[in-house]
Amino acid sequence: MGTMFKSAKQKKTEKVHKTFEHVSIDYDAMNDISSLGMHRVYKQKLALEIKNRQYRRILDLCCGTGDMAFLLASQHTDMEVFGVDFSEQMLNQARKRQSKKAIRNIEFLLQQAEHLMFRDEFFDCVVISFGLRDVGDCEEVLREAYRVLRPGGTIYCLETSQPERSELKQLREVYQGKVIPAVSTFLNGKGMEFRYMAKNSKEFISRKHLAYLMQKSGFTKVGCASYLGGIIACHRGHKAELSMEELRTRSQTASCDSFTIEE
């Protein structure tokens, strides 16, 4: 009976997994087309921010084909980068790229972001770039990120967000919901898959709501930088040394009102 009735989160996880397994070969090219290459610009900006902070062990959650992991690992050869994704086919593409680039300080692992197989406080930094929108349970992923992050460590979440102006929102919906699926159908016959991915992007939570969920998960000093009129946002949070009682209090009192923008 248990397999007959699935929650919305389970259904989304299975649908996303099936989609990424199917589009893995075309994913990088279509990602460049769908974002007009802008995803690479903001990944580079984030990688530079992380480089300046000189972390030693980094987790790239929902790493896909490894874009962010390669940017990070190429900055410092003594940095350990772990790329985690739940799609074996996406990881296969990442490993092929790794072989061509001959970058040694990355390990790609098949894991689900909601259930990581790392010990507590293992990482200095956790990064999620354009992947949180596709998980089944954002809160569970953020709680796991908090668990594996050491006290004093930092989380970064680079993600699509809700445009601030209605004209931008309409333009994005037309481009991602109609143009990209049409181009994909013509190039590789996978228009339905890329339409579904665009739907996840369009329906992802607001910057304010994501900041609230990060606070609720225990992160402090949560801030956000907004780009392209709100189409892309980068959130940053820290893990402080707090007692369990302080964490329970923070979870009960976290509020959207405490959200701040850091330029």
Q: What is the total domain count?
A: 1
The neighbouring-strand order within the major sheet is 3-2-1-4-5-7-6-8
Got a strand count?
A: 8
How much helicity do the residues have? 40-55%
Q: What shape does the CA trace take?
A: globular
In CATH's first tier, which class applies?
Alpha Beta
Determine Rg (CA atoms, Å). Answer: 18 Å
Largest β sheet strand count, sense and barrel closure: 8 strands, mixed
Q: What average pLDDT do the residues reach?
A: 84
Point out poorly predicted stretches: 256-263
Number of helices: 10
User: Can you say what the CATH homologous superfamily is?
Assistant: Vaccinia Virus protein VP39
CATH T-level topology = Rossmann fold
**In terms of structural class, how would the helical and strand content be classed?**
alpha/beta
Order of helices and strands: HHHEHEHEEHEHHHEEHE
Terminal residue distance: 51 Å
Can you tell me the CATH architecture?
3-Layer(aba) Sandwich
Strand content: 15-25%
